[in-house]
User: Fold these one by one.
Assistant:
Number 1:
Amino acid sequence: MSVTFVIGGSRSGKSTFAELKANEYGEKVLYIATAVITDQAMADRVKKHKEQRPKSWKTLELYSDFHTLTNFNEFNESDVVLIDCMTTLIGNFMFDSKLDFDNCSVDEVNNLEKRIINNVISLIDICNDNNKKLIIVSNETGLGVVPSYYMGNYFRDISGRTNNRIGQESDYMYFIFSGIPIKLKHKGEMVKWPQDF
């Protein structure tokens, strides 16, 4: 039905903005949490996110196999699907791959990236096919220092290309900068590249 993409830096306020949008879009919200609790810091982040969300929202902890969403009542009964966030999803895929990023081939990394993007596109497709308003949250990872190790470089590049694809597929897009939303794309409107770029 529509895809809204919310992107910004770490702790920029993007999750809060996405949750406000979800409330605006409908009452029956499904929150898809991509985080896997691996340490105390992540547990604290998850706890804070849970406390921030309305109690009436349904939650699924999922970061792959989105084609199976129609098997879940939480999905079928929702009007709005909010997934937070893409960069955590990408990190999970990279961890699950068991690749040695210092020594693996570029083809292996490219295949991993294709799997990630295919999963994200399947999420967009299943939401569109089932008349759900989808909100996708992601970190902008390309504005910082270039990582000095292979895994960090691959993570940044895969995140950038995945975000790029989501941006193309989205109807609405917002960049959150220090808690301030900046509208980048509105259905039917998009900044075009100059002819001589």
Number 2:
Amino acid sequence: MDELVAFLGENGFTTDQQEAIGRQFHRRELKKGDLFLQEGQISQQLGFVEKGLFHYFCNRNGDEITSYTAGPGDFLVSLSSFLRQRPARETIRALTDSVVWAIHKRGFDQLRRDAPPFEAFYVGVLEEQIVCIEDSRFNLLTLTAEERYQKLLEEEPNLLQEVPLQYLASILGVTPRHLSRIRGHIR
């Protein structure tokens, strides 16, 4: 919980607010391969990753299509499912043994109602997610696969060491074979 409390402190919450918010979260340990959320389920939890790596994916015609990865300091949630209480369109799976601090939807909604600083924080997190989604969409539409890989090298080089090739390829919108060619060309 230390990482979650530190994260809250870095985002302007007082010690009392950090403790009150922290009490709403519970620790979840996930082993490599465990699911945080299954496609089709309604998301009832939002998680803060203390340790580990996750990927978001959907199954289409027997293929896993990875859309996103999350690591320490990131939040885990299928936003549309969590906010609208609709079936999730993606699965969130642990790629490594992981520790997540999760809050149930009821506790989350209560914090939003009862703690104005939490509501403001929440809006900031949503804005950041919207910008990330927009950037990702823009990059997928306007950059070549090589340019997207180069951007990944520059902005998130740790992913190249931590995320299996087939998931990186999916995020970049190419096949693993094409990604191998790109990597060989750029080196």
